[in-house]
Known about the structure:
This is LysR family hydrogen peroxide-inducible transcriptional activator. One of its GO terms (molecular function) is DNA binding. The protein is of the alpha/beta class. The protein folds into three domains: 2-88, Winged helix-like DNA-binding domain superfamily/Winged helix DNA-binding domain (Arc Repressor Mutant, subunit A, Orthogonal Bundle), CATH 1.10.10; 96-154 and 284-299, Periplasmic binding protein-like II (D-Maltodextrin-Binding Protein, domain 2, 3-Layer(aba) Sandwich), CATH 3.40.190.10; 168-273, D-Maltodextrin-Binding Protein, domain 2 (3-Layer(aba) Sandwich), CATH 3.40.190.10. It has helices at 9-21, 24-31, 35-49, 65-91, 108-122, 135-143, 205-214, 217-222, 230-238, 248-252, 286-299; strands at residues 54-56, 61-63, 97-103, 126-132, 149-154, 161-176, 187-188, 198-200, 224-227, 244-247, 261-267, 272-280. The strands form three sheets. Strands 3, 4, 5, 6, 7, 10, 11 and 12 form an eight-stranded mixed beta sheet that branches. β3 (97-103), α5 and β4 form a beta-alpha-beta unit. The mean pLDDT is 87.
Amino acid sequence: MAATYLPTLKQLQYLVALHDHGHFGRAADACFVTQSTLSAGLRDLESLIGVTLVERTRRVVRFTPMGERFVEKARRVLREAEELGDLARAAGRPLTGEMRMSVIPTIAPFILPRMLPRLRQDYPELKLFLREEPSAAACDGLHNGRTDCVLLALPYACGEVASAPLFDDRLFVAFQQSGTEPPPAVYPAADIDETRLLMLEDGHCLKDHALAACNRPELRAEATMMGTSLHTVVQMVDNGLGLTILPEMAIQAGILEHTSIVARPLAADHAVRRIALVWRRASPREPDFRLMADVLAATF
Length: 300
């Protein structure tokens, strides 16, 4: 008799989607159902448990305090349900079926063009769904079950995760060379003009890695944080607006082609970020993730 009162996984999916999107129409699209189907499923859920989870108005979707708690539990249930399927996949052929990976913006455009052809060739049965998002959102999505693994730059506090390091990505100072003398072999952190340093906006961990490597508190206070992407920052430097710090992978991928910018290794302690694949601890797909890490590390 008690089983009659258990919510279905579909109802929990509808509820979590509504919480994520804050809109019935967008939540329905995300679940590949009509809005009326999603609304009916949520009404059935509330009737089943005898509690109002969502306050409905014409313009606003507002979750009740119980609704917020219910969503948090629902995410855990859905994640556990997905891992049941992962157990079966892990017992089969490696790197087959669906995998959802988040990649941070300071990695995605430089590593994916090299990574994807190798995966398509060696693991044609893998369906890899990619999502580009900043580190905080990627780690949040990992713990909420939205993604299975994250391609991340360390150090970064991503919570309780397992990880496999892929390679170290050195940091370079990129600047316009002035005068006729050749540029130095390296660029000491002490020589960076804090009034001309251009960095990515808050939310990009590359900025934190670069500033931590320089170990100059005044840089954080004086640097201009305005770039929305590395390509944008490079264009600003190429137009004489300042200098910046770039990862080696971006330079190798040709981000400085057709510019007058010179790049030299940043001379500082720990002038490097570690690229790693991270996933939830105790995930049944850990063998898949470690194999994926091996493939990615071999690509570079």
